[in-house]
Every structure is written in structure tokens, then in C-alpha cells.
């Protein structure tokens, strides 16, 4: 390797320069020292010579130790806040290195000080591995230090692998020694002996007696735990100390596991003990935060236990979850060499540009060996029980940002050889990580101004709640619960009693807008009340398919209810199903007298003969009171033959809602033709008076005649209109379900394609087969509620409903002026500018008028 004089940089010690054949542009230099003051001596030599050579020198200040350099020394000083966390810290340093450019000299504070902020050796190694290659590419020379015997051998190994020079610095009997451990691409017969530094000289210690005397005076480190583990091991002993000491220690650990001060942090502080926090830590894989979803689940259980004064504890199914810490996510990115790509994607210009590439890489990386071993031990613990791998990002399930359904949750049925099960589990982790780059997640973060915030992805691993029935595994019931029922259709409904979206089997059908199938909407003040429909339509608007885990298919499968009915459910089937006498009567009329009376999933007996709905209502009320805010939960329940049951609280988060609003006076309607629509009930968003600038109306019959491909094209057109009219008050009206994945049931838009609308309306068209769905509680509707979008369903032809589409269709269609390429669907999409149109809703009288 030929080195020009311009490639060489001095350490400031002439003799040592000769030992290592000088520093080279691109070198990262790591000093292992006993104190920061020892490191400072080496830095002073380096800086003095750099100033003489007129080289640009930058000092990165982040530690709490003594300042190593002053600006008065001709040094540029950058102060970086390490307390913001690994990602912010590493990204900020990446940006400043990029800005400074080539052939700059750097001095960093002692890396060991980062333990005070990150509490993790692993993350120090990650920072070094993420930063140093970029410094190398830019032909810089950078000085770093670590305190000897403080870090794990794994951290030292990562640093040794990445750096160009690793040097031990010793002070023994007031003498300074440097012992090179690694000097990349340079060699001499005496290079790796220790050297005594005297002034500008470096005297090689080659005599065995001198070397032995030197090293017997040096303390060698034993096998060291990660600083993270050291902290928690020490905290375990505090359980024997005073309550005050326990509370102080608990709070410190909470900053490590839960995050910084926030409303959720305060709630955890109120309800959790040091013992609780230590139990969480004992079930964590890796280090770092456990994320919002894990925190919400754990907090809900503690609130129910404490505020319920033990009454509900016997009814709760125990959990034995594990938490994959957020640091594992960063380690995965850094160890696979993608940190630079991650940093570029976090910029405004690279946010969407680099996301697909990063997503693809996240699906195909390798995990470090020590993490793999912890994964294996966790899987051995669960055996062949089905598990679910759930996203639990730092921002998820928090006040203000629910991220409902934005990230993946993956079921692992967990069948096959240990190798097969491990492979599936690893891929599930990768899939959750990759979902951070999904379009919906990216849009959600961008729309809420979170694109540059740390979105650290932890993972919650839960045992799937349920039982094996034949070849299938599922819970008896599952669903979503809300402590406030903002979607009401009857003035007698008590909104504060809450509501459920209830399904038989896995709860996946409760959180999605299920196509061609309907969940049971339960008002907890009167579970027997049914949403607006004709009595004879109860079977049509009920659940007909069941989500289950299949042991034979080793996958999530959907089965018709009739296939599940034949199984021994190990409980009274009549709790969930009742004879469908309406359908039986219709069959008799058609001459089918020998047919068995079919069942309908209506849960009537469960509502009448068990107290589970009362318990759900009371638990939701407890949670809402503790949060001082409406809440949204996910749950399951499993029954025994004696009708006893266990409830499993899987998730809890603040329900993002703007409240009910003040009472609004509804104008008198003298002529039914004077309004666009009127309805009693079936709206969500409280009492409002909203002015409307534009109405975007989808004509049911014209839409129905389109091919499936063109129906999807209409949905994409809505997305373009959504961008064009941002900032205006827009009422979006369409047949059936907005957000359906089946175009024959509604418009298959993504939430991001209607996020700028002020009001969305679903109307029924019996002729075309379109029907709104009361899907409040689904992920789609959580997005709508969180964004403050008002929602209304119009059941045309029902009592107390007026619907006049001509009120809009008589106005000029502006679709081509707003969207020039929209001419293809001008007979389907009608955009009208409105003058003086307003929507009035009053939650007390349950009236809504648009005129």
C-alpha cells in the first residue's frame, strides 16, 4: 500500500508516529484509558500538532465529564444531546459529519459517558459501528476513548472490528505507556509491544521482565455484564430497602424501559411497583424500551387489579409475555450495515424515496448470534403454543398517536421442527420491522409531523389466548372495547356505558372492516339492543366466518361457521349461537321442511346468563377513570362448561377523540326537499356545526357498473382529490363502506386517501347491495376518530332518514377542473361547490341535518 505524505497525520508524538507509521486519513483511533484526564493528554498532543499543520479540527461534546477542548484552541465545538436517545444522537452526528465534509480531524468525548444516557453497552457498540465507516469514507481522523474494564467483551469486539487503531493507554508509577492492540494495514516487528512515552520519544518495552512488571500493575477486567444488566441486578437488591428508596430506583428503571416523562409514564409510576418493573425487565430480550403496546397492556392489567380492589383479578387470564427491546431493532439495522440508508430515509427529501429499499432490506437481514440465542430460549419456553408477534413502537398506543393498525402483527402457529419454528419466528420479527416502512405508516407519521421523530420498534410476543378445538385454535370470543360509545343510533343509548365490537374466534375480524361479514356491535348499557336493521336481516348482518389458527396448515385460516359448529367447543355452544328461526321459516316456505334449523351468532345466551358484559363495562369504566380519558382495548375471553370465563386484556390505549361538543340547535325543516340529508342517530363526532365548501359524491349505480379494476381506479382518484382539496371543508359521500377491501361492498380507499376530508358519509343502496357498516372500533375508524373526521351513515328508506342526492347532482360537476385526469370517471365522481351548506348534529336529540 503506497502512502503519500499528504495521507499521513501526526498523533503529535514523533516517536509514536514512527511506531505506527503515522495516522492515515480515514483512521478511527480508539483509546482504552483509566480516566478521561489520561485521554485528554493524548488529545492535547494531537490538537497542538493539528493546529501547527493548519488542519480543521472538530470537537464533539456530549459527555458530562470535564470538557476536553475549548473553542479558544481553534477548535469547532458541536454540542450534541445524547439524552434524546441513540437514533437522534447518531442521526445528528451523521448530519454534521456530512456537512463538515472531507479531511477533517475529530475529537469525541469519552464514549463510556453514553452509558449515563443509554444504559446499554450494546448501543455504544452500535453507535461506533454506524458512525466510523462514514468517517473513514470522508478521509477524516477521529479520536475516541472508552474507559477500560467498563464494557462487555462484545462491545469491545464490535469496536475492534470497526476501528483502524485500538490503543491501550496506561499511567503506571507516573509514567505513560501506549500499547497498540490493532493498527490496520501497518506492521513492524515491534509495533505491538508496549511503548513508554517520554516527551516526544516512544521507547519500546521488549524485555520480558519490564513487560511483566508493567502488566502485573494493571488490573484486568473479568467477564463483564452489559451495563444494562448491572443496573437491574443492583436494583433487585433494593427490594430489601425502604419504600422511598424503591420508588427512586423504580423511576430510574422506568426511564430505561418505558421512556421519558409523559402521561403514560405518570400512570405507570402511579400503578406499578419496583417489583413490577423488575419482572418486566426479566422478560426482556435485548435492551431498550418495551414500546407503547406493551406498556398499555401491562398498565391496564395493573389498573384493573388495583382499582378493582382484587374483584376482577380471578377473572383475568394470566399473561406470560416477552418484550423484544427497541435496541434490538437498531442493532439489527446497524449490524447489517444499513444505518446510512436509515439516516438518509429519515430526511424530508429521502423519507419516501428510500423507504422501499430499506423495507426490502429489513425483510432479509441477519440477527446477531447473542440475540438469536435469546430468541431460541424464548421459543423453547413457549414450546408449540401459538404465539403472536406484535409491533410495540415507542410512539404507539400513546396519548395523541394510536398508530392503530399501521404496523404488522404476525401469528406464529408454532408447529413443525424447532428449526422450522425458529425460522418462522425470525421472519415474523423481520416483517414487523419492515412494516415501519409501509405506506400507511409513513403517511401517518408524515401527516402528524412525526417523520423525523424516533420511532423505535420494540416487539411484544404474546401467547395466543384460546384453546385447541380439533385441528383449530382460537378463543371463544374476542373484540374491541371502547369506554365511550361515540357511535349511537338510538337516543336511549348511554354513551358512557361503552361499546364492544364482538366476534367469535380470533379478534382479527373485530379490528378490520370485514368484507361480506359483520361483527356484533354491543352497547354495554343494553347488550340485547341491535343496530338499525330489519328483524329478518339479523342473519344477513351477522358473522358467518371465523378466523382460526390451523395446526395442520400451520397458518391463520378462515372457516365457515358451519365447519366450526361441529367441533367440541368445551363450553356451551348456545352461549354464542341461537337458532335462526327467521331463516328456518323462509326455508319452510320454500319447501325445505327437512332441513336442520341453522344457527346465528348473536351471543344472546351469553348476554343473558353470564355477567361478562357487566364486567367488561365496569373494567372499561375503571380504565377510563384512571386514564382520565376514554380508552380503547382489545380483549379475548374463554368459557368453561359451567359458564365461568377468563378475560384476557391484550391491549389498551387512549381513545383519540375530541369529545362531544356543546349542544347544537338543529334548524327546523319545513320541506324535506330543502336538505341534502337528515338522519336520527348513526353519526359519530359529537355535537357540531360544520360549514361545507365541497361535496364529493360517488354515484352508486354508475360505480356498480364499473369493472373491478376501474373500481380500484376510482379509489385512487379519491386519493388524488384528497390531496387537491386539502385545507377545504369537504364532505365525502359514497355507497357502502369506505375503506372496504372488496370493491363490491364499497370504495377500496386507504385511510391516507381520505385523511383530509372534514366529513365522510356512507349511504345504503338496497338496489345496488351497498350497506354502511357500524364499524366504529375498527382500525379504519380509529384513524377517522383520531383525525377528528365527522362520520355519518345514511340508511336510505329507513324511518327518520331523508336522503336527496339530487340536491348535489343538480350542481355543476367540477371533477375535471379539480382533477383534469378525472374525466374518465365523471359519471361516477361528482364534485359540487356548495354555498352556505352546513352540517348540524346534536348528540342529545340524536338528530343530524345537512342543508
UniProtKB/TrEMBL annotation:
Coiled coil: none
UniProt-listed InterPro entries: ATP_grasp_subdomain_1, PPDK_AMP/ATP-bd
Keywords on record: Pyruvate
Domain Pyruvate phosphate dikinase AMP/ATP-binding per the UniProt entry, residue ranges: 290-666
One term of GO molecular function: ATP binding
SUPFAM superfamilies from the UniProt entry: Glutathione synthetase ATP-binding domain-like
Pfam entry (one): PPDK_N
Protein name as annotated: PEP/pyruvate-binding domain-containing protein
Organism taxonomic ancestry: Bacteria, Bacillati, Bacillota, Clostridia, Eubacteriales
Amino acid at each position: 500500500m503506497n502512502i503519500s505524505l499528504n495521507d499521513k497525520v501526526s498523533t503529535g508524538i514523533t516517536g509514536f508516529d514512527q511506531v505506527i507509521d503515522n495516522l492515515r486519513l480515514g483512521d478511527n483511533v480508539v483509546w482504552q484509558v483509566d480516566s478521561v484526564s489520561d485521554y485528554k493528554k493524548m488529545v492535547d498532543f494531537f490538537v497542538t500538532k493539528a493546529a501547527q499543520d493548519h488542519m480543521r479540527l472538530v470537537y464533539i461534546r456530549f459527555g458530562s465529564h470535564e470538557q476536553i477542548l475549548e473553542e479558544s484552541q481553534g477548535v469547532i465545538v458541536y454540542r450534541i444531546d445524547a439524552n434524546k436517545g441513540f437514533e437522534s444522537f447518531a442521526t445528528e452526528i451523521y448530519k454534521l459529519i456530512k456537512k463538515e465534509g472531507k479531511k477533517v480531524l475529530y475529537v469525541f468525548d469519552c464514549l463510556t459517558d453514553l452509558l449515563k444516557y443509554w444504559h446499554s453497552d450494546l448501543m455504544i457498540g452500535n453507535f461506533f459501528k454506524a458512525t466510523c465507516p462514514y468517517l473513514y469514507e470522508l478521509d477524516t481522523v477521529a479520536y475516541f476513548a472508552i474507559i477500560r474494564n467498563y464494557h462487555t467483551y462484545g462491545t469491545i469486539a464490535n469496536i475492534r472490528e470497526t476501528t483502524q487503531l485500538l490503543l491501550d493507554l496506561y499511567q503506571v508509577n507516573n509514567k505513560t505507556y501506549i500499547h497498540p492492540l490493532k493498527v490496520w494495514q501497518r506492521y513492524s516487528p515491534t509495533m505491538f509491544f508496549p511503548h513508554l512515552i517520554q516527551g516526544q520519544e516512544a521507547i519500546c518495552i521488549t524485555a520480558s521482565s519490564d513487560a511483566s512488571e508493567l502488566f502485573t500493575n494493571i488490573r484486568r477486567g473479568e467477564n463483564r455484564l452489559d451495563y444494562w444488566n448491572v443496573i437491574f441486578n443492583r436494583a433487585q437488591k433494593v427490594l430489601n430497602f425502604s419504600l422511598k428508596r424503591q420508588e427512586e430506583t423504580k423511576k430510574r428503571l422506568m426511564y430505561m424501559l418505558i421512556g421519558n416523562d409523559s402521561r403514560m409514564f405518570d400512570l405507570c409510576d402511579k400503578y406499578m411497583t419496583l417489583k413490577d418493573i423488575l419482572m418486566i425487565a426479566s422478560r426482556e430480550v435485548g435492551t431498550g424500551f418495551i414500546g407503547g403496546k406493551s406498556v398499555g397492556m401491562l398498565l391496564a392489567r395493573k389498573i384493573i387489579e388495583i382499582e378493582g380492589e382484587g374483584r376482577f383479578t380471578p377473572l383475568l387470564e394470566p399473561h406470560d409475555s416477552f418484550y423484544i427491546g427497541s435496541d434490538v431493532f437498531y442493532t439489527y439495522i446497524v449490524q447489517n450495515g444499513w444505518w446510512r440508508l436509515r439516516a438518509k430515509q429519515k430526511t424530508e427529501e429521502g423519507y419516501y424515496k428510500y423507504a422501499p429499499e430499506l423495507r426490502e432490506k429489513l425483510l432479509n437481514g441477519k440477527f446477531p448470534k447473542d440475540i438469536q440465542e435469546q430468541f431460541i430460549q424464548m421459543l423453547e419456553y413457549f414450546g408449540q403454543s401459538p404465539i403472536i408477534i406484535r409491533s410495540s413502537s415507542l410512539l404507539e398506543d400513546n396519548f395523541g398517536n394510536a398508530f392503530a393498525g399501521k404496523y404488522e402483527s404476525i401469528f406464529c402457529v408454532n408447529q413443525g421442527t424447532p428449526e422450522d419454528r425458529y425460522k418462522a419466528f425470525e421472519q415474523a420479527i423481520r416483517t414487523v420491522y419492515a412494516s415501519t416502512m409501509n405506506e400507511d405508516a409513513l403517511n401517518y407519521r408524515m401527516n402528524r409531523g412525526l417523520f423525523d421523530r424516533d420511532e423505535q420498534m420494540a416487539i411484544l410476543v404474546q401467547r395466543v389466548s384460546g384453546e385447541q378445538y380439533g385441528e383449530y385454535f382460537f378463543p371463544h370470543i374476542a373484540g374491541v372495547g371502547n369506554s365511550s360509545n361515540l357511535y349511537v343510533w338510538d337516543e336511549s343509548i348511554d354513551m358512557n356505558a361503552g361499546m364492544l365490537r364482538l366476534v367469535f374466534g380470533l379478534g382479527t375480524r373485530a379490528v378490520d372492516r370485514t368484507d361480506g361479514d359483520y361483527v356484533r356491535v354491543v352497547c354495554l348499557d343494553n347488550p340485547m339492543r341491535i343496530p338499525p336493521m330489519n328483524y329478518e336481516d339479523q342473519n344477513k348482518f351477522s358473522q358467518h366466518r371465523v378466523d382460526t389458527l390451523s395446526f395442520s396448515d400451520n397458518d391463520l385460516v378462515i372457516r365457515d361457521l358451519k365447519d366450526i359448529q361441529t367441533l367440541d367447543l368445551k363450553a356451551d355452544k348456545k352461549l354464542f349461537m341461537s337458532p335462526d328461526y327467521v331463516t328456518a321459516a323462509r326455508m319452510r316456505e320454500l319447501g325445505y321442511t327437512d332441513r336442520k334449523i341453522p344457527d346465528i351468532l348473536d351471543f344472546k345466551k351469553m348476554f343473558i346468563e353470564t355477567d361478562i358484559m357487566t364486567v367488561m363495562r365496569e373494567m372499561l369504566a375503571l380504565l377510563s377513570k384512571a386514564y382520565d380519558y376514554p380508552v380503547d382495548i382489545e380483549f379475548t375471553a374463554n368459557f368453561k362448561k359451567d359458564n365461568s370465563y377468563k378475560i384476557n386484556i391484550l391491549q389498551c390505549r387512549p381513545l383519540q377523540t375530541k369529545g362531544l361538543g356543546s349542544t347544537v340547535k338543529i334548524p327546523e325543516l319545513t320541506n324535506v326537499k330543502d336538505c341534502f340529508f337528515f338522519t336520527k342517530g348513526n353519526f359519530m363526532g359529537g355535537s357540531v356545526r360544520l360549514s361545507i365548501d365541497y361535496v364529493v359524491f360517488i354515484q352508486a349505480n354508475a360505480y356498480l357498473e364499473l369493472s373491478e379494476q376501474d373500481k380500484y381506479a376510482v379509489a385512487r382518484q379519491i386519493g388524488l382529490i384528497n390531496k387537491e382539496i386539502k385545507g377545504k371543508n369537504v364532505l365525502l359521500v359514497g355507497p357502502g363502506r369506505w375503506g372496504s377491501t372488496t370493491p363490491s361492498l364499497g370504495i377500496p380507499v386507504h385511510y391516507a386517501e381520505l385523511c383530509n376530508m372534514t366529513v365522510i358519509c356512507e349511504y345504503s343502496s338496497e338496489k345496488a347491495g351497498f350497506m354502511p357498516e357500524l364499524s366504529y372500533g375498527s382500525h379504519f375508524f380509529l384513524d377517522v376518530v383520531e383525525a377528528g373526521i365527522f362520520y355519518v351513515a345514511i340508511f336510505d328508506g329507513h324511518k327518520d332518514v331523508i336522503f336527496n342526492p339530487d340536491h348535489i347532482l343538480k350542481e355543476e360537476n367540477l371533477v375535471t377542473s379539480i382533477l383534469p385526469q378525472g374525466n374518465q370517471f365523471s359519471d361516477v365522481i361528482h364534485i359540487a361547490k356548495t354555498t352556505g351548506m352546513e352540517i348540524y348534529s346534536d348528540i342529545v336529540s340524536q338528530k343530524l341535518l345537512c342543508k
